[in-house]
Amino acid sequence: MRKFEREVTDEGEKFAALMRCGYLVLAMEGEGAPYQVPLNFGAELAGGALTLYFHCAREGAKLGFLRRGGAVSFCAADMRRVFNKGTAPCGYTADYESVCGTGRAHVVEDEAERLHGLRVLLSHYTPERFAPSAFDARVLAMTEVVRLDADSWTCKRLLRPQ
Fold this sequence. Notes:
Structural class: alpha+beta
Largest sheet: 8 strands, antiparallel
CATH topology: Pnp Oxidase, Chain A
Strand content: over 45%
Number of domains: 1
CATH superfamily: Electron Transport, Fmn-binding Protein, Chain A
């Protein structure tokens, strides 16, 4: 990280910054070029280990690329505000938080973990909690759940007083 003074190193603060992001972009090896896609996600932090969950259809390019294995990367950002701190146009700048990382993605086969992953994902977007029995079996049968185990992740922040 070039501007080390903007790095967030506290695990709890990094995780809070990630959870303020509405979505992330997942990148993986595609056909002749990197393949990236924006995703809704959920996340857990346990013992310093970051785990992300997302869902998708049971077929498609993203799932095909993930099933090949290999490393993936992700990035999430929260643009806090854009303002002019000097003379326009060169005075425009932004306050932000961003979280980027790498890891391995795994299609979840275990039904209990699939439900857990979906509940983690939902908890990012709603305070409502769902029992496993609340999930429609027909919809679950059409849904893949993917777990991303982060190998490394960083957070960068620039927030100035208003």
